[in-house]
Amino acid sequence: MPHRIFLLVVVFLANIVSHADADNFKLHATGETQWYRGNMHTHSLWSDGDDYPEMIAVWYKEQGYSFNVFTDHNVLLRGERWIDVEKNKGGKIAFDKLAAKFDSQWVQTRTEDGRLQVRLKNFDQIFDRLAVPQKFLLIQGEEITDGYRNMPVHMCVTNTTELLPPLHGKSIVEVMQQNINAAISRRERTGEKSLVHLNHPNFHYAITAEQLMQVIGENFFEVYNGHPTVNDSGDNTHPSTSRMWDIINTWRLAKLDLPLMYGLATDDGHAYHRTKPGDGAQPGRGWVMVLAKTLTPDALVSALEAGQFYSSSGVTLNSISVTNRSITLAVATEAETTHRIDFIGTRKGFDDTTSPATEDPQKSKRITLQYSDDVGVVLQSTTGGSAVYQFTGDELYVRAVVTSSRLHPNPSEPGDFQQAWIQPVVPNSP
Ligand SMILES: [Zn+2]
Ligand SMILES: [Zn+2]
């Protein structure tokens, strides 16, 4: 895209998120607004998931979700696609379940070269059959599946009717930026409100905090991804995604003059037939709770961009209230469960020294630097069903995380507790 148009797009995008350091807000269902629970990262037999998309939609619907976004790898759910009934990721098990749930008119089969094939349903067919106005919404998305050398660079687009092919680039940052620019310019051209988010930065430890922090026009990433191989909690040399989140926001606000980045929780579901907790990329592990007036893709994307949501792997909140002076959280408490509420942020004047994570200069470029403990410090920690954090005026931003005393019933990493991630806010100047 020509440089000038790109700049215009950047200014436009920066405006979308500039609310974050402005208004007071209270997130709670009023009747006019309500919480919508949704998953923004889903794979089906259209790419490498092991179930039929309509079965996946039924699963989310029956679990009480309000919306689900189909994000297969570099493909939209449309056009004519036939697959062998047995030779696919779901095999006979998936087909038998499909045939039991849907009538024979819905399940289209044919025999080719002596083998039974089934036709994959299109997004519009599934939507017509299963979506319920204001109750359950399906959204067409895509996981733009790109990479740099052997490093995966994946970005989910929520709400697109056009396929966005991976555009590649000469560095990790360029790969991210090229694909984001294309998604933004498509949104500008079509007026279709789509949202791009960066997936699982620690998958293959492909993306460092320094790379992600500098991307322009991309203000969302997965702080929690339910796939068991994406290393959300990092390792001895690589920081967790939540540590990366603090590094990214500290540098974006203090050094790069870029807007806050928000953190999503998603399933990245691929495995729909497992029964053992923790086994494979099962659905139902991480989701967003979006406060919106109506259940449409436009309203959901607008609410997400306005920070009117939180992410969860099991903890539910009743309200989040932000004023000039404080953040107040109220958790939906459960019997025999306690909640720890941590407010986390970075203060102005923080120690900004960094050092390489390893002494090997080649390797260290591919690992997030080490930052001082001033970055993403726990500002306040309490136990209970609610908490108030009073701004002192010296915070760059403040976010909160609520951790339940209950273990995740089906964790992506053993020992995970149920959590909720409240989005960062920039306190108003006093
Ligand atoms: Zn991915
Ligand atoms: Zn994925």
Brief synopsis:
The chain has 9 helices and 22 strands. It has helices at 3-16, 53-62, 91-101, 123-130, 172-190, 209-213, 241-254, 297-305, 361-364; strands spanning 25-27, 34-39, 67-70, 82-84, 109-112, 115-119, 137-148, 151-158, 195-198, 220-225, 262-266, 287-292, 309-312, 317-322, 326-331, 339-347, 354-355, 370-371, 377-383, 386-390, 395-407, 417-425. Strands 9-8-7-3-2-12-13-22-21-16-19 form an 11-stranded mixed beta sheet, sandwiched between helices. A 4-stranded antiparallel beta sheet has the order 1-14-15-20, with no helix packed on it.
Structure, explained:
The protein has about 425 residues and is of the alpha+beta class. The chain has one domain: Alpha-Beta Barrel (TIM Barrel). The chain has 9 helices and 22 strands. The chain has an 11-stranded mixed β-sheet, sandwiched between helices. It is globular and about 70 Å long. Bound molecules: zinc ion (ZN) (2 copies). One zinc ion binds next to loops.
